[in-house]
Amino acid sequence: MSGAAYDVIVVGAGIVGAACADEFARGGRRVALIGADIVGSGATAAGMGHIVVMDDSDAQFALTRYSQQLWQALRPELSDDVEYEQCGTIWVAADGEEMIEVLRKREYYGKRGVPTEVLDAKALHRLEPNLRLGMAGGLLVPEDGVLYPPCAALFLARRAQARGAKLLLGTTVAQIGKGRVRLTDGSEISAEFIVNAAGASAVDLTPGLEIKKRKGHLVITDRYPGFVRHQLVELGYLKSAHSVSGDSVAFNVQPRRTGQILIGSSRQYGAEYKEVDNSMLVRMLQRAQEYMPGLSQMSAVRTWTGFRAATPDKLPLIGPTLADPRLYLATGHEGLGITTSLATGRLVADLITGRAPAIPAEPYLPGRKVEDAHHG
Ligand SMILES: Cc1cc2nc3c(=O)[nH]c(=O)nc-3n(C[C@H](O)[C@H](O)[C@H](O)COP(=O)(O)OP(=O)(O)OC[C@H]3O[C@@H](n4cnc5c(N)ncnc54)[C@H](O)[C@@H]3O)c2cc1C
After folding, report:
1. At what angle do helices 337-353 and 149-162 cross, to 10 degrees?
2. Measured between alpha carbons, how far is residue 330 from residues 66, 214, 267, 315, 327 in Å?
3. Residue 204 to residue 306: CA distance in whole angstroms
4. What span, in angstroms and rounded, lies between the C-alpha atoms of 165 and 24?
């Protein structure tokens, strides 16, 4: 591209930055991936790793489905420690009203080529016998999966490195823009393009971004192989994820390859301290036990929190900033950044290299008109 030290510098070595760096390295670009810490230490280490197709909006569907297909294509190459399992999601309907949502979801997915299976109460009980009796049914989405996010990020970063990318870890960036990255030690590195992939901290480097931190809690249990077989999510999860303001919890559990059960999830704005909030934890675990009473007998081995980078319209920011066309954003993925990391890397590279993207990039461009529909 130019006489700059790099064609592209990606700031932030979470799963999104690693996917971007890998994509540029694949295309033969001179790329550096800079991270303040080790690879995948931010929200990536805190995330659940559910690779899920979602349908809050057509744009969200397009990005999640595209990225899920990229994960499926990558699956044979993934290292064992990434623990990719295509366990499927079951959206659990507690009552008749939620069964109506099951049918709506089936139609939406079916029209767009995503296989699903409607489960009545009996079929649900057969697949997940530890759910409380009396559930109305559910929707099985068999192509959804789970993985272990920090190892997935490391896999992508190492592959980028093997393809020629430079990894600068333990390196904190103080300022970016106009083709220059200034580090906290005062030194500068030049690049034709810079990608701000600093997750919830992206706003520190690009002031004015409409990103809010949305705190989440998770709990992992000891090993109970076979107790949970699919990623189980209550349909009320959608109400939680959409809640305009206030704190919310939803039943969301995941079987890990180790036999452990990952229990989520909570959402909070305005709680920017990283410590576990016991009252949220109790609410979250109570919700989980309402759906799976047997969880109350299990030992938890660890609890932690993380921060989702939330935008007003619940879509990530992917593409050039209006103020500086050489500065790109790859952030704002809220609770879907593990799923959508690969598609994000692909879109950023498409936009910079002028390649036609596989899905329209417009809904994610930072310059889009944002309707503040849901967030308080
Ligand atoms: C509780 C919880 C559950 C979740 N569950 C899921 C799920 O099941 N599925 C899913 O798809 N997503 C999930 N997510 C969301 C997902 O974890 C995030 O969207 C994703 O990890 C974002 O990745 P990232 O690379 O953008 O950000 P991060 O992982 O936060 O990475 C940003 C990196 O930038 C670095 N950085 C920041 N500032 C600087 C600087 N100045 N200089 C250098 N480096 C810097 C940080 O060190 C960090 O490593 C969940 C999130 C949470 C909190």
Report:
1. 30
2. 16, 17, 22, 11, 10
3. 17
4. 8
Residues 6+ apart with CB under 8 A from 284: 217, 219, 249, 263, 264, 265, 266
Q: Is the peptide bond before 266 cis (omega within 30 degrees of 0)?
A: no
Query: What dihedral do alpha carbons 337, 112, 267, 298 form, nearest 10°?
Result: -90
Residue 371 has pLDDT above 90, yes or no: no
CB-based burial label for 108 (10 Å; 0-12, 13-18, 19+): middle
Q: 147 with 49: CB under 8 angstroms? A: yes
**DSSP letters spanning 337-355:** HHHHHHHHHHHHHHHHHTP
Tokens 């993380």 belong to residue: 306
Identity at 371, one-letter amino acid code: E
Beta bridge partners of 221: 300
Q: Per-residue pLDDT averaged across 133-149, rounded?
A: 98
And the tokens for 49? 């790793």
Ligand 1: which of 37, 39, 44 to mutate, judged by most atoms within 8 Å of the beta carbon? 44
DSSP helix/strand/coil, 54: coil
CB atoms within 10 A of CB 160: 28
pLDDT of 374 reads 41
Taking only the tens place, the pLDDT of each residue in 9-43 is 999 999 999 999 999 999 999 999 999 999 999 99
Cα 12 to middle of ligand 1, angstroms: 9
Residue 317 near residue 366 (C-beta atoms within 8 A): yes
**pLDDT, tens digit (0-9, with 9 covering 90-100), for 259-316:** 999 999 999 999 989 999 999 999 999 999 999 999 999 999 999 999 999 999 999 9
Nearest CA to ligand 1 atom 27: 199
DSSP 142: T
Task: For residue 317, report the distance from its CA to the centre of ligand 1, in Å.
Answer: 14
Among candidate residues 186, 190, 160, the one with its CA nearest the CA of residue 177:
190
Alpha helices in 112-188 (DSSP H): 121-127, 149-162
Residues counted in the chain: 376
Q: Which two tokens stand for residue 365?
A: 């461009």
For ligand 1, atom 33: residue with the closest CA: 12
